[in-house]
Amino acid sequence: MLVFNTAGESHGRGVFAFLDGLPAGLVVDRELIDRDLARRQMGYGRGGRMAIEKDRVDVLCGIRGGRTLGSPVLLAVWNADFENWKDHMDPWSIAPGRELHTPRPGHADLAGAARFRHLDLRNVLERSSARETAGRVAAGGLLRSFLAALGVHVHSWVTRIGQAVFEGPYSRELLDASSVFCPDPQATKAMEQAIDQAYEQGDSLGGDFTVVVSGLPAGIGSYTQWNQRLDALLSMHLMSIPAIKAVQIGAGIACGGLPGSRVHDPILPTRPRSRPTNNAGGLEGGMSNGEPVVLRCTMKPIPTLTRGLPTFDMRTGEETAAHYERSDVCAVPAASVVGEAMTIIAVTGAILSGFSQPSMAALSQAFAEQRRFWEGL
Ligand code: EPS
After folding, report:
1. Which residue's CA is the closest to the ligand 1 atom numbered 14?
2. What CATH number does the domain located at 3-376 have?
3. What is residue 141's predicted lDDT score, i.e. its pLDDT?
4. Residue 325: pLDDT above 80?
């Protein structure tokens, strides 16, 4: 079973990702991890912090000579900004001056203060900050090597920022040329303009992105238990990304308004079996069905606004405007990279747990192979 967790505060020493349950002998491509980390930092609309950070992966354990050992893996992405914060983030004694008491509507500030009885909101926002997603992307970048070894690939693109919408086809070349990870020059311009306008108005913007998994054979996930359904696992992984408010699979909410004859994808007698349409988004009965898995996520606008929204001061109870911390205007392109990472983590988990409960025929085959290996050792 795959175990994945992160640790680290936004302005602490770094962000860390822990992975356990990986097969031994996986050849890890470090460039893939660093490329994903760099992509997550890009995207029109990012704030000043990204000029400070140059995220790269540091492997602390679990990989030797470029291959996984089968032992737990710990990855680090160090925070360059820690140098500017170390007096305020010290584990033993904190310099004053960075406390916060005016919770931002839409942020974790207020509920986080209630959750852990924190009086200084910095104790909430340091961990609830989207900086944590660097750890997810490091882990996803590593597991990209696992999926690639099995012929499975994950990519994404941005389909909306505010009112600027793109509904066209995917093109890797056009995507690489886009400042907002949208594979269309015109839509890219419109999205940039929308971000500029929000910036000028002291506002922020959300949007949508699509994630696709290709090369997955049918039968990954399971229908036998609720928490093994791949659609459930994917939704949970994607909904866990900060600011994601909706996840749709295939035709998604549109399915609710159509008759069954227009929703369900006919099965063609080809080999492998294929479908002329993909309204199911590659998922039926909680399992992959051999078609590309298509997921669409919606991100709300960033809650940190230069013109703070109405709130209260936790010390006095008085009405005031929410505090402003340096922030991004729009992080939808970055979120699409995090979406890929969380999708990779979900699919890897489903593959590993699927093979821990194989059919008897598949298990006998694997066991015989183990016996042959032992006898030849
Ligand atoms: C974030 C606020 C900003 C973002 C940050 C998320 O950070 P800072 O407060 O240091 O300016 O840049 O995102 C990242 C640091 C990152 O690596 O994505 C927030 O409040 O969530």
Report:
1. 131
2. 3.60.150.10
3. 98
4. no
